[in-house]
Every structure is written in C-alpha cells, then in structure tokens.
Amino acid sequence: MRKFVRQNSLGLSFGVILVLALVGQAVAGWKQFNDEQLAESLSQISLPQYLTSASFSTDVAENWQSEYLQFGLYILASVWLLQRGSPESKELDRAGRESARDQKIGEHATTSSPKWARAGGMRTAVYSWSLGIVMGLVFLLSWFAQSLAGWAVLQRDATATPAGSAELGWLPPQRRLLGQVAAELAVRVLAVGSMAVFSIYLRQRGSPETKPVGAAHTSTGIEGRNGPQMK
C-alpha cells in the first residue's frame, strides 16, 4: 500500500485537492445562494438541493470547460509549434507528428507498448489522437452542461420577477457564454504561454516541468534534461 501511494502520489494528491476544492466550492456557493435568497425574501434550500441545482452545475461546468479547452489547445498546438529553449516544447527538429519509429507504433512497437499502439490501422490511428479526443469531448460536454445549467438559471431569474412571464430561449444566453469562454481562455492561454516562456530562463529545482538548474537557456525539450544542449 505504501509503495502504491508513493508511486501514485501526484495523482492521488491532486485527486484529494479536487475533492476538497469541490466541497469548499459547494459549501461557499450554498451559503451565498441562501444569503441571496434571504435578501430577496425567498425560501432557502438545503445543501443536497443546492448540489443538484443549476447554479452549482453552472459554476462547476464553467471551470471545467475552460480548463480542458486550455490544455486541449496546448496539447494540439505543441505537436507542430516550437519554443526554443523551453522544456514545454519538443526539440526543434521534431515538429509534427513524428515518424512511426519515433512514436513506437505498428511494427516499431515494443512488447511493453499499449495494445492499440501495436495493432496498426484504425485502432492505432484513434489511439494516436486519444488524449486530444478525450480533452475535446470533456470540453464539449462541460460547455453543453454549462449552457443548459446557465439557461436554467437565467430562466429562473427571469420568471422570478413580476414582469418575467415570457420564457427565455436557449440561444440568446449562449452569446454571453461565448464571451465568458473567450475571456477565461485569454487568461489561461496567458498562464500557459507565460510558463512556456518563463521556463526558458527560470528554474525550479527537482521539478520535471523545468530544465535542470544548470541547463543552458537554449536547451529545448527533454534535451535540457538528458541530452546535449541545442545551440
């Protein structure tokens, strides 16, 4: 058990942080929701009711869709785009999908390669894009969930007013959602892009996300860790 925890400590730690963060978000959001209900002389709800409400779903889905869009775009962009000196970039001579030999697929796969990497054909093609596909699907599902939940919230708020008798269609709120997605993406692209550039010159000792402390600024990709320094 101790060995399992040690070998999976990164994933387990982030899983625990995720659960704690969701609990904190749920409790804080529930308190705020009931405060707003109380201020408007409306009935309050229980925590289980809040967890199944459109308000909570909107807040969670909003964060998920923007994060998965950010990393999905970065994963795909880093296939072809390079950044000299950054450990977040591939080596400067490996832009693109790379050869079957480099990727260890088909006849170049080893006995320890995943089954679908050895299979060839459509299965290998799908597996070759599986990370990007899953990231894209999670983004689309999160966006769709946010659009429905956000629409329900706006519908509720509109009908709660004395003049709010007409139902609000699904399409109009999506313009606001697209604006939110664009604003959030700008911030997250700034964060990821600045990390790729900062890591050219700055270091964090012991982290695989940066180059060794003594690596040259021009060292790019894994070359900064294991290979010769690229000029």
Describe the structure.
Helices cover 66% and strands 0% of the residues. It is mainly alpha-helical and 231 residues long. It has 2 domains: 1-52; 60-95 and 141-226, no CATH class. The protein is elongated, with a radius of gyration of 23 Å. The model is unreliable at 227-231 (pLDDT under 50).
Q: Which helices and strands appear, and what pairs or packs with what?
A:
Layout: H1 2-7, H2 9-39, H3 47-51, H4 54-80, H5 100-103, H6 115-119, H7 121-128, H8 130-160, H9 171-201, H10 223-226
Unreliable stretches covering 5 or more consecutive residues: 227-231
Strand content: under 5%
Gyration radius (Cα, Å) is: 23 Å
Specify the biggest β-sheet.
none
What is the overall number of helices? 10
The coarse silhouette is elongated
Count of domains: 2
- Quickly give the structural class: mainly alpha
| Average predicted confidence as pLDDT | 81
Percent of residues in helices: 55-70%
N-to-C order of helices and strands: HHHHHHHHHH
The end-to-end distance, rounded to whole angstroms, is 45 Å
The strand count comes to 0
What does this entry show, briefly?
With 231 residues, the protein is an all-alpha fold.
